[in-house]
Specification:
Elements: E1 2-4, E2 10-14, E3 21-25, H1 59-74, H2 81-94, H3 97-105
Antiparallel strand pairs: 1-2, 2-3
Length: 119
Amino acid sequence: MTKTSPSSSATVIKRAGSRRQVAAPVSPSLSPTAGNAPGHVLGGKGKSKLVRDSYTIPKAEYDVLVALKLRAADLKRPTKKSELLRAGIVALEEMTDKALLALLGRVPSLKTGRPRSEV
């Protein structure tokens, strides 16, 4: 089901039976290639709105996240997992299109949803 909000220029996509909504920007001025590109995520002024989300990650990749957290602690820079993920987003944002596509090709797609619990 797709709705257009009268108060904004975004399309809101909502799945039937889902409480989660995703706003997709319609304006091309919001795209990273429109001049507000690399560095705009961390360089903003004022408080930005925080969003809470959940995700599924393979155990091997989660172990890498934990190892990076320990590595940062060894470098005298204690870091939270969310900080590592946000740093990764900044690094991805600064990549060229070719480098980003190459990296995405190395990451397998996962089935969405929660994994079944093993009893």
